[in-house]
Amino acid sequence: MSEVRDTGSSPKGGVYHAPWENHFEKVFTPFEEFIHRQTTSGLLLMGTAVLALLIANGPWASAYEHLIHTPISVAFGSVAIDMSLHHWINDALMAIFFFVVGLELKRELLVGELANPRQAALPIAAAVGGMVVPALFYFAINPQGAGAAGWGIPMATDIAFAIGALALLASRVPRSLITFLVALAIVDDLGAVLVIAMFYTETIALGPLAAAAGLFGLLLVLNLIGVRNAIPYFLVALVLWVAMLESGVHATLAGVLGAFAVPAKPKYNPERFSEHVEELMERFRASHRKEASIMTNEELRAVVQTLENGVHSVQAPLQRLEHVWHIPVAYLVIPIFALANAGIPLDFGSIGETLSHPVMLGVTFGLIFGKFIGITGASWLMLRYGLAELPKGTRLSQIAGVSLLGGIGFTMSIFVAQLAFATEPQLLLMAKTGILFASALAGVTGFVWLFTVSGKPSAEAKVEQATGS
Fold this sequence. Notes:
Distance between the termini: 41 Å
Helix content: over 70%
Radius of gyration: 25 Å
Structural class: mainly alpha
Strand content: under 5%
Mean pLDDT: 83
CATH topology of the domain at 117-198 and 350-464: Na+/H+ antiporter like fold
Strand order of the largest sheet: 1-2
CATH architecture of the domain at 117-198 and 350-464: Up-down Bundle
Order of helices and strands: HHHEEHHHHHHHHHHHHHHHH
CATH class of the domain at 117-198 and 350-464: Mainly Alpha
């Protein structure tokens, strides 16, 4: 152990640095900044999808298939859950993704863009148009047969990819346009959750479903009695997930229900917290004078611990959990999902047959033309009849560019495709191919469109860059 012993002398400037700490920070700080950039999660997701494609079409294809279909069994007393690794990723790991989606949605409804009816009207209408019209495009091409079940696939927008693409243009577009896309994608996610719950549930077991309802009620009771510790919510939500899995309703919805039960109000308001900190700092100074080292001063340690508890209490649990889980979901959960689901074997010898397949065409036309017409058309109607107003500093041509980015379906579209064609591997392959093709085309065309219509960097962007915000 190379840790320096506390000799009682004060560190320089009141700050202690470990022997290698300064060198480590020089390496870690730029990496940490990169991790927190909005574009990074989109780039990681793109890289993971490409990696999955390379593996599925290379010498490791059989090992890849064997791995993702490896059976894994987990037992809880008399309850045993037997699923493949692929299903564990899609049903269990993605529940965490839906938990974060639920947290974001609840925050937006309470204090975000969706809290103000006037501001919320445009992204809500745009999202509805961007769900209905793509579904109609798909259904027009696949009106009957097994392929008709995929109508929900082109309704979804991948928030990570879409915002990542738009963030690349942050110097040319107003910040309000990114906010508009976030609000639109959140409403889109809610629509996808409802579609999954109502239309992609085959059979329902009433006993487990009643148990799930009771567990959700218990989560609400925890909220009402003021429980702000995340552990009780996690434990109840875990049992809720098992109940949802047994009920036949897709288990990932347990993540959304759990998120909606998380308290959105902190224990302290800012004024009370400020008073609390001042009281603690007076005690801290008095305790520090008695004994300088926190290692030997129990009173000093108690004050610091109370201060830490106060810092947590001034934050809403919802806000804190969203912050804690954002990076694990963006940089672990979604890439693992992409790695397990984007591995599509490509047969270039039958590319013509693939490109003309009704499911492939339905998904592609829905995501490209359906999203563009649905989002732009709904926005135009709302503005035309004075029911909404454009976000500050934006133009309808930029909304049209965002509607193209909305055609990046990827994560949620693949998720719905897995549900729609769970027993139809050939149709699932066509749907995934359409999703990848349309998402790539939507990303490129949306980026070029916005780059063209936005012109030079906006004044707002210049101010943000100058101020470092």
